[in-house]
Amino acid sequence: MVSFLEFEKPIAELEARIIELRQTANAGDIDISGEIDTLEKRAAKMLADSYAKLTPWQKTQVARHPERPHFRDYVAGMFDNFMPLAGDRAFADDQAILGGFATLDDRRVVVIGHEKGDDTASRVRHNFGMAKPEGYRKAIRLMQLADRFGLPVVTLVDTSGAFPGVQAEERGQAEAIARSTEQCLALGVPMVAAVVGEGGSGGAVALAAANRVLMFEHAVYSVISPEGCASILWRTADKASEAATAMQVTAQHLKSLGVIDRIVPEPVGGAHREPVQAIASLGAAIGEELDSLAGLSPDALRQGRADKFLAIGA
What we know:
By secondary structure, this protein is an alpha/beta fold. It has helices at residues 9-27, 33-52, 56-63, 71-78, 120-125, 133-149, 166-170, 173-186, 201-205, 226-233, 240-247, 251-257, 275-293, 298-311; strands at 80-84, 97-104, 107-114, 153-159, 191-200, 212-216, 220-222, 262-264. Helix content is 50%, strand content 16%. Helix 1 (9-27) packs antiparallel against helix 2, helix 6 (133-149) packs parallel to helix 8 (173-186) and helix 10 (226-233) packs across helix 11 (240-247). Pathway: Lipid metabolism; malonyl-CoA biosynthesis; malonyl-CoA from acetyl-CoA: step 1/1.
């Protein structure tokens, strides 16, 4: 069973009714297949209509859905021959950012991304995808390896932001994020970033200063969370819905503003409903973008990134 969000309650009630009718049909001799078929069509239409007109705040909820695919799911469904690499060679191995060598179709790449976890234990182990300085320094090390071996870099962004704890600040959180962003811009190999869920603040940009930035249809990307913005502007997180609208956090807004390059469609009802289909769509889109960048010189790749990001907001 899919976990339903607040705005999906009417759909949840209808699908619960469908399940009850199926159980009744299986238990007796009454033929109610026609009624079940009618309700299924009605539920599918309600779902499609609902997701066709999501508000920015509702998209934020979808982007945070606990059953949405995470980094390990994308690695398993999109890449082959994944060889994880760990540690920053300085302090520790941060489980909020994972990465290593892999193959995307016939392309050898280095893949790096945030991992939020999918149950209580794994979420704690991965710190809910909120990386510490050693996570960004690990990402820098992997990007440098990619540069050395001439391998494209693929990053999967899904974080509410970098970890804001005292220990992270003591170990140079801001400097690590800045260095990771700098390393993205300095790469002499193609880089494609995809915001697959939540792209929050510098913690996201540190892995997303790429030649091509993709976003899932219902992902969000912003300098601060809607709740954080509302707490600053209105002194209450209850205004998160208004903040999300004002901040223009959706893929559709960001594409029109030139912040991202491509929107990747999701299955009806979000990536969490059909993860295999969503992962396949993203893999195909990333492959197309890597092909479009193949053959460009290191200088052209660096200049392209510089031009892209300097043009934002101009």
